[in-house]
Amino acid sequence: MLVRLCSFITVVEEGSLHRAAERLHLSQSTLSRQMKALEGELGGNCLSAPAPACVRRMVGTLAAKAGALLASYEGTIVEVRRLLRGESEQLRIGYVGSAAHDYLNPALTGLRQTNPAARLQLFDLSPGEQITALRRGEIDVALTDQGAELLSLDFFTRKLAAVTSVVVLPTSHPLASQKDHSDRPTKE
Fold it and tell me: Which regions in the chain score pLDDT beneath 50?
């Protein structure tokens, strides 16, 4: 049916079965058979000359609607092909709030410059919530401070940076009186 609709639109655009056959690189007899099959599906002759005004209007309506249908079909096929290649215009990102300023915001700026049509959804989630959301397919990317070694068993991981942590205690805490070890190298 799809091939017959494409052929029908070409016949209407060209105004001639002969010119349409040339444009479609078909023999005129092949195109005639396609149009007869389409007329059979429609239940009447729509390309026979001379056609009454009501039939000409119907042919114009069918051509316009079939053209819109085919454009929608082609758009759908393009979208499905993109999805099969793993491409999408939407990106759902889970992140830890503390990482937004240093890591997420610069990445989003670059993403918006290279893919201005991308629709972004941002989710401020704890590391555990991000992992659950990834497993459920609710987010596409997680920006977390959890151990990459453990996460790499289930997900593709990439280390972006090492973050230095600071422990703060009240002065009355027993460990507060211990010597400052800030000169020691930090572990990543």
Answer: 187-188
